[in-house]
Write a structure and sequence with these properties.
This protein is an alpha+beta fold. About 40% of the residues lie in helices and about 25% in strands. The protein has one domain. The chain has 3 helices and 5 strands; from the N terminus they run ααβββαββ.
Length: about 170
């Protein structure tokens, strides 16, 4: 009788160890899934915020006919880096903190995210083809990125027809 009791106890302990190991494995998988879901959710929020900020910048840029000096009127404290004599040629970098609040130009070291608009004045034919006529157009590329991770969050390419004379469409 004593041997049977020891045998049953050993089997019971073995079964208990197997069950504990199984639940441990399942809990590790569940924790990893929750961590992955949290990271994916955070990335989705950041991509959404970057998209809204980039689209807002694009709308202002179009409203200002690609003039980077005029765009900065809507972003006080920001200064464009103009590459030529045209106010449409250059780069505007907007830096944001962890909560997607825009930072003044001098506090870029604290930035977690950035949106960079690079604009260029060109002929309408280069953008729209031969049927566009002799007018001018502006093109821009907007890149949103996470500075801490060094990963892009999205990009946007836009163009705007200025018309035959710079400053107004027909």
């Amino acid at each position: 009788m004593k041997q049977n009791s020891n045998s049953n106890t050993a089997l019971f302990l073995m079964e208990l160890i197997v069950v504990i190991a199984f639940f441990s494995l399942v809990s590790v998988v569940c924790v990893r899934l929750f961590v992955y879901a949290s990271q994916t959710g955070t990335r989705s929020v950041n991509v959404g915020r970057a998209t809204r900020a980039a689209e807002s910048l694009a709308e202002i840029w179009i409203f200002c006919d690609g003039d980077l000096d005029r765009v900065t009127e809507y972003y006080p404290g920001q200064v464009p880096d103009l590459t030529g004599t045209n106010p449409e040629d250059g780069t505007l970098t907007l830096c944001y903190d962890e909560n997607w609040q825009i930072l003044p130009a001098g506090r870029t070291a604290e930035a977690a995210y950035s949106i960079v608009l690079t604009g260029q004045l060109t002929t309408a034919r280069e953008v729209y083809g031969a049927e566009a006529g002799e007018g001018q157009a502006v093109t821009a590329s907007i890149l949103a990125q996470s500075l801490k991770k060094g990963t892009p969050l999205g990009d946007l390419h836009i163009d705007h027809y200025l018309g035959d004379a710079k400053g107004g469409a027909e």
